[in-house]
Every structure is written in C-alpha cells, then in structure tokens.
Amino acid sequence: MIEDAAGIQRLIQASPPLDVNSTYAYLLLCRHFRDTCVVATRQGQLAGFVSAYFPPTQSNVLFIWQVAVHPDARGCRLGQRMLEHLLARPLTQSVASLETTVSPSNQPSRRMFAALARARGAACVEESMFPPELFGQADHEDERLLRIAPL
Ligand SMILES: CC(C)(COP(=O)(O)OP(=O)(O)OC[C@H]1O[C@@H](n2cnc3c(N)ncnc32)[C@H](O)[C@@H]1OP(=O)(O)O)[C@@H](O)C(=O)NCCC(=O)NCCS
Known about the structure:
The chain has 151 residues and is of the alpha+beta class. The protein starts with a helix and ends with a strand. The protein has a 6-stranded mixed β-sheet. Helix 1 packs across helix 2 (23-32) and helix 3 packs across helix 4 (107-120). The protein has a single domain (2-149), classed as Aminopeptidase (3-Layer(aba) Sandwich). The chain contains 4 helices and 6 strands. The chain binds coenzyme A (COA). The site of coenzyme A has 21 residues, from strand 3, helix 3 and helix 4. Belongs to the acetyltransferase family. EctA subfamily.
C-alpha cells in the first residue's frame, strides 16, 4: 500500500549496506509494483520488505531488488520466508529463475539466497553485473549477479 512507503524508507535506513532510495521511489514500488513486493509486519510495525520486478524483456525472471529485515527481527528466517511468499503467489508461478545482486562482503544476504537455493534444490551461479566503477564517485562495492534456477 502507498501508506507503507515512508515506513519502508525508514526500514531501509536501518538496514545498511542497502542504498536508501527516495520516498517517491518507494511510493512508485508500492503503487506500480505491489504485486511483486512484500511487506511483513510484527505487532503492527514494519519488520520486513522485499522489492522485486520482472525485467521488461524477461517475463520468466524475477529480479529481487532490495530485501530488508528490521534488526530486531533478524535471524528468524523472515527474509527467506518473504522470498518464499513471493514465489508462492499465482503471478510468479511461471518464473524460471530468480536474480539479484549481492556485494562480496554481504554474508547475511549471500547466506539467505544460498539457503533459498538449497531449499528449492536449485543451482546458484554468480557472475559480474555492476562493477564498482559504474557507481561513479561513490565508494560502492561490486554488485555481483546471483542467478538461482531452476525454480
Ligand atoms: C540479509 C537479511 C535480509 C537477512 O534477513 P534474515 O531474516 O535475518 O535472514 P534469514 O533468517 O532468512 O536467514 C537466511 C540464512 O542466512 C543466514 N544469516 C542471516 N543473517 C546472518 C548473519 N548476520 N550472519 C550470518 N548468516 C546469516 C541464516 O543463518 C540463514 O542461513 P542458513 O539457512 O544456512 O542457516 C538481513 O540481514 C538484512 O536486512 N540485512 C541488511 C540489508 C541487506 O543486506 N539486505 C540484503 C541485500 S538485498
């Protein structure tokens, strides 16, 4: 819901190393991409968020953009459960592979996606996607593509 956008931005602010996007970007995600996004609440508070979309020319690929779990809710497999929830929706039943990017040092993220691949008996392959120099002046880590398939 668009009412979630400001809270999502606060959750992302509390979830380094994620890039914090504008409130407007989260409003667009909540409005135009709600079918491929997930929010999780705990006791009325926003505890988790996943943004994802189908790349315009690849309708059988689900690209996961940001996954965030509130620091107080980590370690309970909420991240993995939100991804599984997304993959259980009718809209994603024709998805053949899940793609995302991870930085080399983000072990929680890598482990979460590895656990998903393991649970599905899928392979997880890694290749170059957005090397650091593409981020301009910003001191940004490499963002490497992970492809989990077949789903
Ligand atoms: C990455 C993140 C979403 C994981 O959420 P989570 O709900 O705590 O993760 P899960 O409980 O689903 O864990 C899934 C796997 O990752 C492992 N894991 C999670 N956090 C970990 C940590 N800090 N260190 C080591 N392993 C970790 C779990 O042990 C589990 O692996 P296993 O099945 O082999 O035991 C969360 O740590 C987060 O929001 N981080 C900041 C934002 C970020 O980096 N997002 C990911 C990039 S898009």
